[in-house]
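Quarterly update, task 2.4: adenosine-5'-diphosphate-bound model.
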Amino acid sequence: MSTSPNAVIRLDGVSKRYGQNVTALSGVTLDVGAGEFTAIMGTSGSGKSTLMHVAAGLDSATEGTVILDGVDITSLGDKQLTELRRRRVGFVFQSFNLVPTLNILENVELPIILDGRKPSREERDRIRTLIDRLGLGARVSHRPSQLSGGQQQRVAIARALARKPAVIFADEPTGALDTRSSNDVLAILRETTRDLGHSVVMVTHDPAAAAIADRIVFLSDGQVRADRGNISSDEISRAMLALEPVA
Ligand code: ADP
Ligand code: MG
């Protein structure tokens, strides 16, 4: 297991059980390097979303420790955890999760507003730059429903980036998009690490999406089964097949 000194996330012996019978994660030890684009791959039910939720402090581990941006989140109370998440983590979900009654700019500023303050001048400049960079400059006063799926996901990415998070978690970010919008969103997430230096952890079951990552962690039955560098979507598909039990 890699033990990078600049890990943005460090899971050590993490298990997650739901009730008595469901073990969603089982003894996961994993470091995620800062500034890297990491894909978490696996079939439906393999534990990808659970891994993301536990790593991001959206859900608690049953066993083990989770260190996020240098903080042991398994020892934090709810309030501290919410604050850490809001300040240091950005989320992108399959279903965009934008607030329908707010316009695009308001949606992007929301993580700052939720902190009980107005964006600083620097933050406003930064947000404006992000919005322009994501090709949404002419859309700031539109509502999410007036935008295409791909555009809505770009708004969600801008929102995730608004507070310069230590890490962005994306759960099947292209799951609801057509091929062209998917490629667009993946390229933006890719640039986020390459050009802006952010760390991205993307959960996906799509080999073509995972092929843009620096590293691919393969999950099966809640365990890490393989850990690879950047490989092609064909190699990813083969690696996925190798994980499946022979019928
Ligand atoms: P994936 O994202 O790879 O499809 P999940 O992490 O969502 O997988 O789920 C892993 C396993 O945990 C599955 O068996 C799923 O049914 C179970 N699971 C996930 N969330 C819950 C929950 N809230 N309650 C009970 N079981 C759950
Ligand atoms: Mg999932």
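Highlight for this quarter: The pocket of adenosine-5'-diphosphate (ligand 1) is lined by residues 18, 22, 24, 42, 44-50 (CB under 6 Å).
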